[in-house]
Each structure stands twice: as C-alpha cells, then as structure tokens.
C-alpha cells in the first residue's frame, strides 16, 4: 500500500470491508479511534458507511482542544488580560468558550491575544518585544509537547526571560486507562493514534493488550489506513489474540522519536493530577514544567484563578469524549450548538467529533443508516 | 494540529539551533529539525511538520499522498497552511 491512488481505491476499501464482514459475521464489534485526526478522516470520507454495520467506531478523547476543561480556558484568559502581556495561542483555541467568553472575546475587549503557528514564533515575539511578557498557551498531546520542550530549551539557552509557557500538555495513555476502567463503555479494541505514536512509540500501549486483553493497531490517516487497521483488529479478535500492531509503519517506529522524548523529559514532568473535560481528574495525565524551568512557567509568573468550572448543563461533550454517546445524541447538537456558536469544545475544533459530524453531514446519514436493513457484504 | 504538513528540506540555515528551510506548497519557511537529525536528513528529503517542527522523515509518496489528503480537509488544512505561511521562525 504505497501509491497515492491505492489509498482512495473504493474497490479495495469494499473488498477489505467484505473481508471484515466475513471474519466478524454478525458479532457486534466496538472499536475506539483515540485520535481526533482519525475521527475527522472517518467522517470526511464516510468510512462508517463502507464498513459492515456490526462495526461500531467510537470516538475517543484524542482532541486536545476538546479535552481542556473550562477552568483552564478561564486561566488563559486571566493571563491574557494581564497588563503588558502578549498572549499567544494556536488558532484552534481562540473560539473555545470559557465561563465568561473566549480568548477572541478577550481580544475584542483589548487583550493582546495573537495567533501563532509555532511556539518558536512566540519566542520570536519575546525577542522582538523585550519590554513585554510573551506567554505561549501550550496545548496538545505528545505530538506537540516536544515542540514546546525544544522552545523552552532554546529560551533557556538564549536567556530569554520575558517568555513563558502556560503548560496544558496532556498524555494519551492515562486517558486510555481511564476509559478502560470506566464502567460506561465496553470496547473490543483500539485504533491507536498515528502521530502521538510517532513520538511515544509502541511500547506504552502494551498494558492494553497484556492487562486488558484488547488489541491495538496504530493507524495512518488515509481512509484505507483506517479500514485496514479495522481489518487487523478483527483478525486479532477472531483469533483470540490481543497484541499491539503498527499499520502506520511509514511514519511510526517501534521506539518512537528518542530526541523528542529526551526534550520532554528535560523540561517537563508529570502533574499529580489534571482535570479532563468529560473524564474528570486523572492522575499523572498531564505535564508541567520542571523546577529548573520555573522562570519560564506562566503558572508561577502570573496569578491564575485555577478555579474548576462545570460545563454548561446542556453540553454533553463529556459523554461524547468518552464515547458513551454519539454527537447527534446530544440535546443541543446542530441546534443551539453549531460550529458558528459552539457551546462545547467538541463543536469548536476541526478534530472534535461534533464538528466533524456537523461539517460533513454524517449525522443525517447515520440517522438514516439506523433505519436501513442489514446488508450482507458476503453476498 | 494532529495531521502535520509535509515539507521538503531546501537547506540548513542554522546548524546550532537545528533550523532548516523547507518548501511547503511552493512557499519556503524555516522549521526546527532537531528531532529528525538522527535520521540523517539532507536537502531534498521530505519531513512531516507539526507546529514548526519536523517530527518524522517520510518518503516522497507519503508526502504527496498526505498533501492530497490535506487538500481534501478544506478549512482544517488551509487554516494550518495559512498559519505556517505567516510563521517567521528564526
């Protein structure tokens, strides 16, 4: 599977799907795709419509914007409103609602909030404005944490003291553990995140196979990557095996990216606990700066409220993030909550399940599909 | 943020800080290559870029196919590409 065209080959997708149907028969199989990028691909390309009906893809918590709790957005806004601060953020975070508006609202009211593409762009702003305090709103899983780490190492090496990081990096493994321990959901296996695995490698997933007896297949982002990963998972399930396999060998190495892990280990350490939207407090699930990097830690430099804020009552992002309900099951989906006026984070980020359903119209197709008779792909 | 953007290494511009110039969709920008140096990258190689950092060496097929996939992503891709084009990493 190397050439571009092969990935889009609808016939190949259907033949793999028929294979999956042959292996699983009518047995319901529930697989979680952990990564928001996968969720996006699944709805963009209608993968659920290609797979046999007994395969249920459940969307996981792998959307960094979605899992950040409202209290942390409020903390970010409090820093952004501080006199003399230039507050820098990835575009995705701008419209995420806090309890009293978003960063975009704060900007409209006079706070100096700026989009940056990279933490290195934030560091450059600090060099250009030595009289200002430049803060970088660091979010993301292990895919982006190493970039923050290398930026911190450079700030330290250059002695740039008017730069700091508001660190909200989270780690994927404790979230998967929390889902496995949750009584709400019974899963048969996991489609592992491609680019987090590019950093952490394959070994951290071993406990899922060993202790929980569930297979994991790390997947790429093309439609056929995902379909092939489902095939690899059901093959394991039917043979009674539970192993960690890598479908995305083009990018993911078994050992991960050693340089990236080194940079993270030098600059960051695990927090005792961290709140996740929907999943609650999870121990050792997020990163903070090491003591040596205290001069660059925005949480120490600025007064952050640090107050836990409950989600709006109408919002069911928490249940969507745990995979307990589908986006269209939420009471406000597509009515009060849309990408233009989001109530919950899952509707803000393009990696959020609700935004993906909404944008690609899959919610209506899925509703129709529920009414359709079962199609026997073996025929 | 999650998908990454493929870019082709043009030249190294700062050996100490591991900064290289890459070409992405016809535009040249600087990115940090500290995390892929161990893979022995040279000008002409393709890398997958996340938030201004090359995270993995990829082959040309993978690069082209990812670019095609990203073009189908509409806003998610164009927003990120626009952001990258505005980046001024040194």
> Can you give the helix content of chain B as a percent range?
25-40%
Number of helical segments with 4 or more residues of chain B: 2
The overall pLDDT average of chain A reads 90
Return Rg of chain A in Å.
Answer: 21 Å
| Overall average pLDDT of chain B | 88
Strand order of the largest sheet of chain B: 3-2-1-4-5
Largest interface: A-B, 47 and 42 residues
Unreliable stretches of chain A, pLDDT < 50, 5 or more residues?
1-6, 371-379
CATH topology (fold) name of one domain in chain A: Rossmann fold
Give the strand content of chain B. Answer: 35-45%
Shape of chain A: globular
> Remind me, CATH topology of chain B?
SH3 type barrels
Q: State the domain count of chain B.
A: 1
Number of strands of chain B: 5
Q: Output the CATH class name of chain B.
A: Mainly Beta
End-to-end distance of chain A, in Å? 26 Å
Architecture (CATH level 2) name of chain B: Roll
Index terms:
heterodimer, A: 379 residues, alpha/beta, Rossmann fold, five-stranded parallel β-sheet, 13 strands, globular, disordered C terminus, B: 90 residues, alpha+beta, SH3 type barrels, five-stranded antiparallel β-sheet, 2 helices
Explain this structure to me?
The complex is a heterodimer of chains A (379) and B (90). By secondary structure, chain A is α/β, with parallel strands linked by helices. Chain A has a domain at 66-170 and 256-301: HypD, alpha/beta domain 2 (Rossmann fold), CATH 3.40.50. Chain A is built from 18 helices and 13 strands. The model of chain A is unreliable at 1-6 and 371-379 (pLDDT under 50). Chain B has one domain (5-86): SH3 type barrels (Roll), CATH 2.30.30. Helix content of chain B is 27%, strand content 37%. Chain B is built from 2 helices and 5 strands; from the N terminus they run βββββαα. Chain B has helices spanning 60-71, 75-86, and strands spanning 5-14, 19-24, 27-32, 46-50, 53-58. The model of chain B has no long low-confidence stretch (mean pLDDT 88). The chains are: A alpha/beta (379), B alpha+beta (90). At the A-B interface, α3, α8, α9, α11 and α14 of A face β5, α1 and α2 of B.
């Amino acid at each position: 599977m190397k050439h571009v065209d092969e990935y889009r080959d609808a016939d190949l997708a259907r033949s793999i799907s028929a294979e999956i149907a042959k292996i699983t028969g009518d047995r319901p199989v529930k697989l979680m795709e952990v990564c928001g990028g996968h969720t996006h691909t699944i709805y963009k390309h209608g993968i659920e419509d290609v797979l046999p009906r007994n395969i249920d893809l459940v969307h996981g918590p792998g959307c960094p914007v979605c899992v950040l709790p409202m209290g942390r957005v409020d903390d970010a806004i409090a820093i952004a409103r501080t006199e003399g601060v230039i507050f820098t953020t990835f575009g995705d975070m701008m419209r995420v609602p806090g309890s009293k508006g978003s960063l975009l609202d704060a900007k409209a009211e006079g706070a100096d909030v700026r989009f940056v593409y990279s933490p290195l762009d934030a560091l450059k702003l600090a060099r250009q404005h030595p009289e200002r305090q430049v803060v970088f709103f660091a979010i993301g899983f292990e895919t982006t944490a190493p970039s923050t780490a290398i930026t911190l190492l450079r700030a330290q090496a250059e002695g740039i003291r008017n730069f700091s990081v508001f660190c909200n990096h989270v780690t994927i493994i404790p979230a998967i553990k929390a889902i496995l321990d949750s009584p709400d959901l019974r899963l048969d296996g996991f489609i592992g995140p491609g680019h987090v695995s590019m950093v952490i490698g394959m070994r951290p997933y071993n406990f899922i196979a060993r202790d929980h007896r569930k297979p994991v297949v790390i997947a790429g982002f093309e439609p056929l990557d995902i379909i092939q990963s489902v095939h690899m998972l059901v093959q394991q399930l039917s043979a009674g095996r539970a192993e960690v396999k890598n479908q995305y060998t083009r990018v993911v190495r078994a050992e991960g990216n050693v340089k990236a892990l080194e940079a993270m280990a030098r600059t960051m350490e695990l927090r005792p606990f961290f709140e996740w939207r929907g999943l609650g407090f999870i121990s050792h699930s997020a990163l903070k700066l090491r003591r040596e990097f205290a001069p660059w830690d925005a949480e120490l430099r600025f007064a952050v409220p640090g107050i836990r804020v409950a989600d709006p009552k109408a919002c069911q992002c928490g249940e969507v993030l745990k995979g307990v309900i589908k986006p269209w099951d939420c009471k406000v989906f597509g009515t009060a909550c849309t990408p233009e006026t989001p109530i919950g984070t899952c509707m803000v980020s393009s990696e959020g399940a609700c935004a993906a359903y909404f944008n690609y119209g899959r919610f209506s197709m899925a509703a129709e599909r529920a009414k359709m008779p079962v199609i026997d792909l073996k025929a | 943020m999650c998908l990454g953007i493929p870019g082709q290494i043009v030249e190294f511009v700062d050996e100490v800080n591991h900064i290289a110039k890459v070409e992405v969709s016809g535009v040249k920008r600087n990115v940090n290559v500290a995390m892929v140096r161990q893979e022995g990258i040279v000008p002409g190689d393709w890398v997958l870029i996340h938030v201004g950092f090359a995270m993995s060496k990829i082959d040309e097929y993978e690069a082209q196919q990812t670019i095609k996939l990203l073009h189908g992503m509409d806003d998610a891709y164009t927003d990120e590409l626009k952001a990258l084009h505005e980046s001024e990493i040194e």
